[in-house]
Amino acid sequence: MAEKYGTVPPKYTAKWWQYIWDYYKWHIIITVVALLVASVTIVQCATRPKYDMNVVYAGHKNYTEREAEDIENLVAQYITDIDGNGENSVLFQPLVFMDSNGSAEYDYAVQTKLDMTFLDDCSFIYLMDKEQAQIYLQRDSIQDSFEDVSKWAGETSAEVLKAENGTGYAVSLADSALFKEKNIYCDDLYIMVSRNYKDDEANVKAHEDSLNAAAMLIK
Predict the structure, then answer these.
(1) Which residues of 22-53 are buried (b: 16+ CB within 10 A; e: fewer)?
(2) Is 209:79 a contact under the CB 8 Å cutoff?
(3) Region for 124 from its dihedrals, namely left if φ exceeds 0, alpha if ψ lies in -120 to 50, beta otherwise
(4) How far is CA 138 from CA 33, 84, 148, 209, in A?
(5) d(CA 203, CA 198)
(6) Residue 78 C-alpha from the chain's centroid
(7) Which of 33, 71, 91, 184 would staple 51 via disulfide (CB 3.0–4.6 Å)?
(8) Which of 183, 176, 51, 174 is nearest to 123 (CA)?
(9) Which runs of consecutive H residues, i.e. helices, occur in 77-129?
């Protein structure tokens, strides 16, 4: 509070407190709010549940809570207890685009959030509709972002989406027996596995589990 307004009363007197409030109340309010937001964020980060793996969905389908839970349970069957807490836990993270009039800013925010998930720990399985998958397939950096399907899909009979370099990066889940058994919408759903650039044990294991899980889900 370097800037002064009028004559400043003696410190800590009743008039001084009134003076501070009259001239600096918005500074005080903003500071208090900022501190509260920071405190809440820290608490949320410290207390939020930990997961062995994150599964990201990007597309235009609003999955129900039941479908989200079924996807989590399906993937959990094919991963290991990375954090050693006695259970295989998976988080399904849906990022849904609107692509409607007036939704440009919203969709931009969703795309930004989607791109940021590549920095998250233990986040390698990506489920996308064809439109969203094609967006990544058209990027020059596709080979740096996702694994070649030949590394994990084998000789699959499912549809494979390829980039301009001729390499496949996305496999259709339209005929997935596991998804159909659970009645999870998969007609326009593709699975991709992102590459791992982290060398810590948790991410290395999560990436290995992701390749194995993806191979099972396309059967």
Answers:
(1) eeeeeeeeeeeeeeeeeeeeeeeeeeeeebbb
(2) yes
(3) alpha
(4) 43, 39, 15, 27
(5) 6
(6) 20
(7) 91
(8) 51
(9) 104-116
Neighbours of 177 (CB within 10 A): 11
What is the C-alpha to C-alpha distance for residues 126 and 194, in angstroms, rounded to an integer? 7
Specify the DSSP class assigned to residue 141: T
Per residue of the chain (219 residues), what is the pLDDT tens digit? 445 566 777 877 877 778 778 777 777 777 777 677 666 555 544 545 578 999 999 999 999 999 999 999 999 999 999 988 889 999 999 999 988 888 888 899 999 999 999 999 999 999 999 999 999 999 999 999 999 999 999 889 999 999 999 999 999 999 999 999 999 999 999 999 999 999 999 999 999 999 999 999 999
- Cβ contact 90:79 at 8 Å: yes
Please count the CA atoms within 13 angstroms of the CA of 153 that sit on its side-chain side: 24
From CA 211, how far away is CA 164, in angstroms rounded? 23
DSSP state of 114: H
Please report the pLDDT score of residue 209 as a whole number.
Answer: 96
> How far is 85 from 65, CA to CA, in rounded Å?
24
Residue listed under structure tokens 């050693």: 84
Helices of type H across 9-61: 14-47
Contacts of 24 (CB under 8 A, 6+ apart): 1
Token pair of 157, please?
């009979």
Which residue has 């596709």 as its token pair?
142
